């Protein structure tokens, strides 16, 4: 049987060494005689694991001391609510930059809580979408924050520059790009990410928030979404997703041992280039995103002859290449090639695409 490569957008594949380690200590973690998922979150063993995981994430991302790192429930969509509930409280106004389907969903949630100004900087030139430079977004100067999504998982649109927002805090939904490359955390007021792409399994959400943004939540915010409450309780106001937190700690270890985010970024660049270069020169497949905004993590592509879509997917699956179907809202194909996807997986996909195209020509 061929090696299996899972291109799912999330929950996504996790690094093999991480899964093997989790398996080997599943029944007896750290000589406790218990699985880590059976331990109290308040016991010394889990508390030590939790603190180490936070420290590792701080080291990997270079998170400054004036930021809290919160390990939460609720996923990316939970943060679509938590962000306005916590931050939309001074002017009651926020700018939302819509570049695809996830940032659009964030708007529908935020609109329940305040005055949301929508900015749409995606334009199509020669049938390819690209994002106007942030200097042309016309951001407000009196908003409580600016929200954007640097990597649109469905559309495969990535914004590589960090928008300049002056004194207005910048909030980023990094669900599908966090840990794929180094970022300057100090440019952000708040970063959030669901774990199920580059961090670990679903059920865990990471929030990185600058200290001055704590303590200004609406009085009605549920306790489990109140950043100040979560920070005061070391993310243990209620029982955290302990097993997901543990798996994230293994992923952080794996990343550290690999050499950190610059090394990871280079691997990701090479993988994405290999796939996009093939699509670019092909007369059989095409991309709808302009070069400067092509995502390194999610690569949507289309067959010129869409009637071959189901045959493509069937044969890909038979060749061990799983979950390549594009999101139902945009159709086509999508290869999600997060950190855990090895180059060999991307190469196997390119070879399959080549063979499929040759047979159908
Ligand atoms: N934001 C982005 C960029 C996403 O990719 C996703 C999920 N794929 C979400 C938000 C929603 O996350 P969740 O399903 O964890 O609520």
TrEMBL record:
Chain positions found as N6-(pyridoxal phosphate)lysine: 197
GO molecular function: O-phospho-L-serine:2-oxoglutarate aminotransferase activity; pyridoxal phosphate binding
Enzyme Commission numbers on file: 2.6.1.52
Domain Aminotransferase class V: 4-349
Cellular localisation: Cytoplasm
Top EC group: transferase
Sorted UniProt keywords: Amino-acid biosynthesis, Aminotransferase, Cytoplasm, Pyridoxal phosphate, Pyridoxine biosynthesis, Serine biosynthesis, Transferase
Cofactor(s) for this UniProt protein: pyridoxal 5'-phosphate
Binding site for L-glutamate: 42
Catalytic activity: O-phospho-L-serine + 2-oxoglutarate = 3-phosphooxypyruvate + L-glutamate; 4-(phosphooxy)-L-threonine + 2-oxoglutarate = (R)-3-hydroxy-2-oxo-4-phosphooxybutanoate + L-glutamate
Entries under CDD domains matching the protein: PSAT_like
InterPro entries documented for this protein: Aminotrans_V_dom, Aminotrans_V_PyrdxlP_BS, Pser_aminoTfrase, PyrdxlP-dep_Trfase, PyrdxlP-dep_Trfase_major, PyrdxlP-dep_Trfase_small
Gene Ontology BP term (one): pyridoxine biosynthetic process
Entry annotated with the keyword NAD: no
Cofactor binding mode and count: Binds 1 pyridoxal phosphate per subunit.
Pathway: Amino-acid biosynthesis; L-serine biosynthesis; L-serine from 3-phospho-D-glycerate: step 2/3; Cofactor biosynthesis; pyridoxine 5'-phosphate biosynthesis; pyridoxine 5'-phosphate from D-erythrose 4-phosphate: step 3/5
Gene Ontology annotations for the cellular component aspect, listed alphabetically: cytoplasm
PROSITE patterns: AA_TRANSFER_CLASS_5
PANTHER family registered for this protein in UniProt: PHOSPHOSERINE AMINOTRANSFERASE
Function: Catalyzes the reversible conversion of 3-phosphohydroxypyruvate to phosphoserine and of 3-hydroxy-2-oxo-4-phosphonooxybutanoate to phosphohydroxythreonine.
Similarity remark: Belongs to the class-V pyridoxal-phosphate-dependent aminotransferase family. SerC subfamily.
Subunit (UniProt): Homodimer.
The protein's name in its UniProt record: Phosphoserine aminotransferase
Lineage: Bacteria, Pseudomonadati, Pseudomonadota, Gammaproteobacteria, Alteromonadales
């Amino acid at each position: 049987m061929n090696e299996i490569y899972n291109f799912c957008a999330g929950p996504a594949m996790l690094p093999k060494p991480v899964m093997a380690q989790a398996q080997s200590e599943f029944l007896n973690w750290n000589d406790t005689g218990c699985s880590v998922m059976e331990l109290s979150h308040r016991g010394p063993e889990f508390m030590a694991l939790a603190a180490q995981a936070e420290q590792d994430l701080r080291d990997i991302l270079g998170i400054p001391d004036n930021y809290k790192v919160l390990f939460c429930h609720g996923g990316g969509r939970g943060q679509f609510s938590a962000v306005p509930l916590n931050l939309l409280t001074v002017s009651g106004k926020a700018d939302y930059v819509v570049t695809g389907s996830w940032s659009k969903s964030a708007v529908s949630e935020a609109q329940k809580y305040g005055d949301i100004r929508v900015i749409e900087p995606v334009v199509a030139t020669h049938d390819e979408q690209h994002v106007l430079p942030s200097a042309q977004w016309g951001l407000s100067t009196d908003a409580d924050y600016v929200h954007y999504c640097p990597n649109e998982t469905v559309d495969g649109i990535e914004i590589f520059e960090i928008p300049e927002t002056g004194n207005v805090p910048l909030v980023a939904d990094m669900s599908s790009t966090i840990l794929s490359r180094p970022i300057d955390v100090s440019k952000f007021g708040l970063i959030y990410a669901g774990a199920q792409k580059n961090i670990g399994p679903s059920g865990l959400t990471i929030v990185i928030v600058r200290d001055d943004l704590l303590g200004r939540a609406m009085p009605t915010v549920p306790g489990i979404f109140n950043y100040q409450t979560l920070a005061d309780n070391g993310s243990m106001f209620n029982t955290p997703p302990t097993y997901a937190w543990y798996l994230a700690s293994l992923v952080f270890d794996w990343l550290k041992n690999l050499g950190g985010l610059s090394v990871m970024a280079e691997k990701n660049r090479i993988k994405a280039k290999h796939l996009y270069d093939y699509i670019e020169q092909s007369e059989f497949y095409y991309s709808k995103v302009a070069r400067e905004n092509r995502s390194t993590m999610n690569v949507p592509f289309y067959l010129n002859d869409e009637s071959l879509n189901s045959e493509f997917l069937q044969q890909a699956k038979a060749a061990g290449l799983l979950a390549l179907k594009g999101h139902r809202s945009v159709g086509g194909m999508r290869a999600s090639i997060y950190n855990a996807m090895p180059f060999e997986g991307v190469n196997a996909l390119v070879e399959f695409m080549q063979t499929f195209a040759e047979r159908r020509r």
